[in-house]
Amino acid sequence: MEPGPLAPAQRRTPDAADGSGVQRYVLPLPGTVSILRAFPCQAPAVHAEPLESPQHELILEPVLRDSRFRLALVKPTNRKLCINGERAPRVSLVGEGDQFEWDDTCVFHVSIFHVPQIGPAPTGRSCPICFAPFAAAADTVCYRCPCGTVLHLSDATGLECARAVKSCPTCKLSILLQEGYTWLPEFCHE
Ligand SMILES: [Zn+2]
Ligand SMILES: [Zn+2]
Questions:
Q1: Does domain 4-114 match CATH 2.60.200.20?
Q2: In angstroms, rounded to a whole number, what is the distance separating the alpha carbons of residues 135 and 146?
């Protein structure tokens, strides 16, 4: 499972196409450090490469912390960041379902797109659930947690260990076998 974090943004403008006064954008984030730019009258944008003047930008980095995907935010001292309505310190961590406002331009909602890592068995290792070594057969399919732990998903003898447990035995991260969002802001369901 890989985080494909994303911040659908709601932008307050008077001339939105749907007449609600709000324009919405989806901003996929790269898995590494990126920079968020949001200016009045412009669509917010994420840049994978740092710009020349990062002291004016909000820096974003997806991190895995306490078995949960988080987004680290680092703001310059002279700009305003609010998280869930509260003034945020220079460095903050947000998670799925949190929202933040950057310089009063936009409201960003943090969602996570899960992509399960499913593939062939690693050689010379055993499954931590059933303790059986992974068979080197082509029909052995395994689930790999972001922490590196590998579990049977299916094999010739019927082992489906990744389906038998809800979370990784090593890092306790939830095992999600379906690709998709686990949470989206309410306006995405309208
Ligand atoms: Zn197993
Ligand atoms: Zn794990």
A1: yes
A2: 22
